[in-house]
Amino acid sequence: MHCGAVTACGSRYYTPLKRRISSTTPAALIVRHLRPPCRISVVSPHSSCCAVRLFRTSFVGDISLFDAMKRYFSGSGITENKKMVEHLQHFGVISSVKVAEVMGTIDRGLFVPDGSPPYDDSPMLIGYNATISAPHMHAMCLELLEKKLQPGMRALDIGSGTGYLTACFAMMVGAEGRAIGVEHIPELAATSIENIQKSEAASLLKDGSLAIHVGDGRLGWPEFAPYDAIHVGAAAPAIPQCLIDQLKPGGRLVIPVGNIFQELQVVDKDLKGQIHCHSQTSVRYVPLTSRQHQLGIQ
């Protein structure tokens, strides 16, 4: 398929005092802070699926290591899904009643490998050089997408991993909507289906409103496009234009962008099809890449 060009990009400024921690790499503790505006340009115009690259106009921000450590380790030792949600509410990560309800319904413990502390506010290794994001990152993304996850809407989860966030999406859009997960590691896709079958989202998987597919998430999943909400669970060097094209007018895409320095980008497509973006926070995700590269296959 040929992907068109982005026609416009808006931006939003955030003061550097609004710092956050958002990590998806267990080996690193990284302080997060909100960034100033970005601008977009289209790259690789002759490829079958071109991309949108983000450029930072400036870099500002101050860092408090004490605040970072306090926030990062505050979720350790939690042993119940309900307590995990209450913890995130206490620290202001979850403010939405609906997000709290859904995260309380879908038990994260069913989606984390045996031996890992499932309710700690920390990312977890799930094999195949992949991770499941920390609960606070899932909560943040659900809140950013909540208005686009209303009953009857369509959601796409790229890099669906163990299936946790896809299951949350499915609970929010309901049986009259559709939630699609795309995972390029077949073994993870199979495991995610088993996990969902044990969860409260099992009936949605059975009736087909929730589905997991094996494929290259960088190409999206055109079959059920356009989508009201698209989430990407790995960092792309540039926003895949195919995902922009599969976003419904009025829809929202949340995607980490960057290599060493990454930012969680919120991309809105207005009703005229124009694109507006802002950076929500700095993050650290595994890269969005090919299956071969992720597995180290030459």
From TrEMBL:
EC number(s) stated in the UniProt entry for this protein: 2.1.1.77
Keywords: Methyltransferase, S-adenosyl-L-methionine, Transferase
Gene Ontology CC terms: cytoplasm
CDD domains found in the cross-reference section: AdoMet_MTases
Reaction(s) the record says it catalyses: [protein]-L-isoaspartate + S-adenosyl-L-methionine = [protein]-L-isoaspartate alpha-methyl ester + S-adenosyl-L-homocysteine
GO BP annotations, alphabetical order: methylation; protein repair
GO molecular function: protein-L-isoaspartate (D-aspartate) O-methyltransferase activity
Pfam families: PCMT
Highest taxon of source: Eukaryota
Leader sequence residues: none
Family of this protein: Belongs to the methyltransferase superfamily. L-isoaspartyl/D-aspartyl protein methyltransferase family.
Protein's name according to its UniProt entry: Protein-L-isoaspartate O-methyltransferase
